[in-house]
Amino acid sequence: MRYSFPLIPGRFLRRKQRFLAEVELAGGARVWAHVPNTGALRGCSSPGQEVLLTHDGRPGRKTEYTWRFVKGPQGWICLDTLAPNRLVAEALARPGLPGIFKPLQVRPEVTLPQGGRLDFALDFGEKTAFVEVKSVTWVEDGVALFPDGITSRGRRHLQDLADLVRQGHLAWQVFVVQREDARLLRAAAGLDPDYARELARAAKNGVKILVIQEKVTPPEINLASTLPYDLT
Predict the structure, then answer these.
(1) Strand 105-111 and strand 117-123: pairing?
(2) What is the largest CA-CA distance in the chain?
(3) Fewer beta carbons under 10 A from the terminal one: N or C of the chain?
(4) How many CB atoms lie within 10 A of CB 28?
């Protein structure tokens, strides 16, 4: 996946609410940029961090800029939470994902009969698989942590996946780590113990866990290698 707009360097100043960040551009001008990530951005939003923006001046936008990347201690981090879904969709349309063969058909944004929605339904003929994708940007000491804020929505997704397994379907929770300095993924039990318990329960009940790390070389990002995970 490659961003088609040129990347504009700057430095992060502050975040206003969830969707706006003030950035100082290279020439000293200050602009507001859309933040395509509702998370807390732990470790990714310290004043002075280098950032890369894209510019889009189409009518109707609240700001002409979008924050795409931030420079971490060991390289660039992609903040765009839509990017993992696009990468997963591209992979499913070609060779598939590790442990998930190429399906006959991929349906995005699937609404479930009981309510709620998951990112993908995969038709394998005799079986249907459901996939939920989560973006991971928080890393401490080489450990990728999710979530970076309390997420009741994330717990509901896990419960939906476990329910689908009980109904005879296949289900995957896919975590896409959008940086290259992680060697392992864990649930952020200290921040959201309920999510950590729900993830372990879902895995025990047959929901498969897949962690994939991106190679981040702005303006391009690609799915690279799988990472191990620890649910204890």
Answers:
(1) antiparallel
(2) 59
(3) C
(4) 6
CB 104 within 8 A of CB 125: yes
pLDDT of residue 70: 98
Domain ranges of the chain: 8-74, 82-230
Q: What is the 3-state secondary structure (H, E, C) of 158-205?
A: HHHHHHHHHCCCEEEEEEEECCCCCCEEEECCCCCHHHHHHHHHHHHC
Q: Are 29 and 11 in contact (CB under 8 A)?
A: no
Mean pLDDT of the chain: 94
* Statement: residue 37 has pLDDT above 90: yes
Considering only CA atoms, which of 74, 97, 70 is closest in space to residue 85?
97
Q: Structure tokens of 95?
A: 């060779």
Question: What's the pTM value of the predicted model, to 2 decimals?
Answer: 0.95
Give the mean model confidence (pLDDT) for residues 207-227: 97
Q: Is the confidence at residue 57, as pLDDT, over 80? A: no
- The pLDDT value recorded for residue 95 is 82
**CATH number among 3.40.50.150, 3.40.1350.60, 3.30.70.660, 3.20.110.20, domain 82-230:** 3.40.1350.60
- Chain segment 158-181, per-residue pLDDT in tens: 999 999 999 999 999 999 999 999
Nearest to 77 by CA among 48, 43, 47, 54: 43
